[in-house]
Amino acid sequence: MIKNDLVLAIEKNTNLSHSKAITLVEAILKFLKQGLIEDGEVEIRGFGSFRLMNKKTGIGRDIWRKSRLAIPKGKRVKFCCGQELKGLILEDDEV
């Protein structure tokens, strides 16, 4: 699913116009980004949580040039699936 699919799903399942659905999706994404930047964590009960993690420096390989390269330290976003969503995903696996 891409952002436009989400907009269309919101538009279809609510009484919102296309432009208001776009505004809603953009606002949600803006607040998710803002929460990660300011707090380092965003939790949506029943869905999951996004956490900002520190990544250590490391050594990688360039398989084309057959050389080693340094991977700089940085940050990444980690998503942990919520219990409710995990249950739904596992139900689909069993079918």
Could you characterize what this model shows?
The protein is α+β, with helices and mostly antiparallel strands. The chain has 2 domains: 1-38; 40-95, IHF-like DNA-binding proteins (HU Protein, Chain A), CATH 4.10.520. The chain contains 3 helices and 5 strands; from the N terminus they run H-H-E-E-E-E-E-H. It has helices at 3-13, 18-39, 83-94; strands spanning 41-44, 48-55, 58-62, 67-71, 74-81. The strands form 2 sheets. A 3-stranded antiparallel sheet has the order 1-2-5. A two-stranded antiparallel sheet has the order 3-4. A hairpin with a 3-residue loop joins strand 1 (41-44) and strand 2. The longest helix is centred in the N-terminal third of the chain and has 22 residues, at 18-39. The radius of gyration is 19 Å and the shape is elongated.
